[in-house]
Specification:
Layout lengths: L4 H25 L9 H41 L1
Amino acid sequence: GKISDEEKQAAKGEMDKERAEHEKDYKRFDKDGDGKISDGEKQAAKAEMEKRRADHEKEKAEKEHRDHQSEKRHDDNKRK
């Protein structure tokens, strides 16, 4: 294959979106605004990302549990 103009445009749009998100994150973690991420800022960013990841995993596990419980109730009701 060949990449169509539409596919190129879509890929460019995705790259631009990702670049904007990275810039936003960089500015958020650059607490002192010096344009550099210091060791302390890196540690704070890492802690924030780890917390966000843990929260996401917890939410995912809770949703899977709720879904499983819902399926179980549905199956139980079908047997009645």
